[in-house]
Amino acid sequence: MLGAGSWGTTFSKILADGGADVTLWARRPELAREISLAKRNSDYLPGINLPPSIRATSSLEEAVGESAFVFVSIPSQSLRSNLAALAPLIGPETVVISLMKGVEKGTGLRMSEVLEQGLGIDRDRLAVASGPNLALEIAKEQPTAAVISSASLATAEAVAKVATNRYFRSFVNTDVIGTEFGGVLKNLIAVAIGIVDGVGYGENTKASILTRGLAEMTDFAVAYGAVPETMSGLAGLGDLIATSSSPLSRNNTAGRLLGQGYSFTDVVARMQQTAEGLASVAPILTLAAARGVDMPIVQQVSQVLAGTLNPRDIAPHLTTDSLEPQGERPIDGRKNRGGPSLRRPFQRTLDQLRNGGRGAGGH
Ligand SMILES: NC(=O)C1=CN([C@@H]2O[C@H](COP(=O)(O)OP(=O)(O)OC[C@H]3O[C@@H](n4cnc5c(N)ncnc54)[C@H](O)[C@@H]3O)[C@@H](O)[C@H]2O)C=CC1
Ligand SMILES: O=C(CO)COP(=O)(O)O
Q1: Is the pTM of this model over 0.95?
Q2: What residues does ligand 1 touch, defined as CB less than 6 Å away?
Q3: Domains 6-174 and 177-354 share a fold
């Protein structure tokens, strides 16, 4: 396991509790020592006792060793800089799994794409894990489901087998694009929910944003070739609910601070852990523009981050982008006057069905 933050450490516990032999790579030798000797990671998972079998090291070579599976859980924006050192250590049969939920600034690439480029390995040996997986709840062994996705079903199943134990269950799919984008996009909607929470709006506002946000997520993901159903699964709706409703979420917390009036710089300074959504907003909007996808909610989040929109003004903008009555779904026999953020996902789904289930576009 590469990355000894809250998720890398928790996922190591999941694997060890499922019977796997786990070595965790921590950048800082003192953290590796604490995990190995005290079986604790007090900075990231206070109060959690780790399984006695977990070992940690600050040597990448020692951590990777002869492992059949290498899981990667470091902040998305630092992935690429670690790959030159990692590439020569990966064996010809090794499967590499991304646990990360961001896209790379500058390239807009998903983490599995960055891994594919940087490690030069075949897609069939890559997988991603996603779903409603707030680390601390899982570290406390609360029952949770996740989804493992790979272009190769056999790879997804092999990973799911090791990532399953008495409190954690991994399902599988082969929609890597949808599974990965689900994890990225829900962070952006969770920031929006945090903002309105911080402002003090109530449940109707949040439910409206969640629902319209899911339509936006679906629109975007399908435009990039995802299967629409993935967005109503664990990696889409499931993770959207968990991240948007929990104070444990760093994205939700960052949003709440913005809603309370803190500037972007103040929020970054106050966050002790990675809030991936903050770095993903710009690349996602660039990708959305490239495929003609409207993302009014993400757009508003970006304006709040830039300080050009008062957080109090976010909800009225989010819930209506036109004063014309809009169809929530396309209405039979009538020209659809729904807003683009709702109309396009349904249109794309229809196109996909007509297209024999193939994605609307590749990436
Ligand atoms: N914490 C959670 O509940 C979940 C997090 N994730 C995802 O997992 C990924 C990692 O997040 P967390 O573990 O939560 O973050 P974190 O902030 O708790 O830990 C990040 C870890 O990466 C290390 N790190 C920072 N910069 C690095 C660099 N340049 N090179 C190597 N290591 C570096 C840090 O020292 C730390 O150990 C993110 O993409 C996040 O979205 C996914 C599901 C759940
Ligand atoms: O991905 C997560 C839950 O599934 C964690 O969310 P945060 O990164 O917002 O804490």
Answers
A1: no
A2: 3-8, 27, 44, 73-76, 78, 81-82, 99-102, 133-135, 273-274, 276
A3: no
